[in-house]
């Protein structure tokens, strides 16, 4: 199979992830199936939302795509290459193409490292450029994400929550990835900050030709950032289509129940959420 396509960046086929568990008293083994035969396509330069309730398997899928976990079965194609068939050496160069921004930036930022060093650290690990070039790249990214160069030597705890997320975004961009996975990256922020980060993500997507996988349970943010959406239910993709079509004409009963549980989407569609947060 060759997933190479001028429009497709990522093609996932039959992705399955099972966890072997033990019962605390009896010690009997049992299997939890977090993902079951998932098929998903992510278009180059677009934003695909992955939605579903807690426990649906969203973060597991994101971690498998980022190669932070090894799936039990299936294929993950990136620009025509099945990542799961690559050896360790080949994966090192591929991993830079897929970066993750997590919900809590503090969990992924070393509290003892100044901002510019945190951003440049992936370059240091891969021995790319001189120290001057690494710092120059870090400072340029700080400016792009809206952090003043004067704060380059501040520690993460000296920044606000929104600023720490900007710092995490800059760090994710330093290796010039093609795909950014936003794993509930905005859910811990207040409404005003969410709107500001959403605007930033749009600007960066255009600036760097980025593709986003937007993992979220917040359909308001999905309507603002994403063009397409896939609904994950009990480890399976049950529906994938344009966000506008999904909200207007949900087909699967689970999608219908998700949408019925929120206020009318036209109250915050058409980028009204972003505009209201200015």
Give the SSE order as H and E letters.
EEEHEEHEHHHEHEHEEHHH
Helical/strand content category: alpha/beta
Major beta sheet, strand line-up: 6-7-8-3-9-10
Low-confidence stretches: 1-5, 267-278
Helices, by number, come to 10
Mind summarizing the main beta sheet? 6 strands, mixed
Q: Summarize model confidence as the mean pLDDT.
A: 88
The CATH superfamily name of the largest domain is P-loop containing nucleotide triphosphate hydrolases
CATH class of the largest domain: Alpha Beta
- Give the second-level CATH assignment, the architecture of the largest domain: 3-Layer(aba) Sandwich
How far the N terminus sits from the C terminus, by CA atoms, comes to 47 Å
Strand content: 25-35%
By DSSP, the count of extended strands is: 10
What quaternary form is this?
A: single chain
- Per CATH, what is the topology of the largest domain? Rossmann fold
Number of domains: 2
Share of helix among residues? 25-40%
Shape: globular
Describe the structure.
- With 278 residues, the chain is of the alpha/beta class.
- The protein folds into 2 domains: 1-97 and 179-201 and 209-278, P-loop containing nucleotide triphosphate hydrolases (Rossmann fold, 3-Layer(aba) Sandwich); 111-176, no CATH class.
- It is built from 10 helices and 10 strands.
- The strands form 2 sheets. It has a 6-stranded mixed sheet with strand order 6-7-8-3-9-10, sandwiched between helices. The chain has a 4-stranded antiparallel sheet with strand order 2-1-4-5, with helices on one face.
- A hairpin with a 2-residue loop joins strand 9 (228-233) and strand 10 (236-242).
